[in-house]
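Shipment paperwork, digital attachment
Item: protein structure file
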Amino acid sequence: DLHRLIRRQRQMCIRDRDDKVFDYAKKARGITATELKQTVVIVISNYVQYAGTTYSYSDGRSIAYIALSSGTSQLTRFGNVVVHEAGGHGFGRLADEYYNSNSGNINNDPDALLEIIEWQDRGYDQNVSLTPLHSKCPWNFIFTLPQYQSDYNTVSTIEGGALFAEGVWRPEPISCMNDNRLYFCLLYTSP
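Attachment content:
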């Protein structure tokens, strides 16, 4: 799939592909190196399969690689994958909220744990928490809003996210970052 293909290319030290994509994007009117740091570049592959991945850089640039999915379900529809990859990861700087029930605890994977901490320090992945405590999660402000009980009561800390079943919490049971539905957590629409 596209994930494996891109991973394999990167492992073979073909890292200049992203630089070529960014250079090409700068040919668009109004896109300078500075503007590019606030831009999501979308690369659509003619490969017909459900696949997508986004690479974000700490300076704000990102590239969403998306295959032409012919799927008809919410999970596999091309438009939904674009919204998840480019909108959620690239523009929103959000982490995945899905996981496999056999994926274990993030605390058993020090590299993944450190990666989340580092990205959160840069302002990314604010939709996942490494603690279930409302007072310490990235979206802690929402629990103190006067309208929390009436308007935002679906927001909590729900275990499972960032590809791990345990040790990571997300703000709502469902969202685009969980299963590609065209809905982002109320957290991202709050005042």
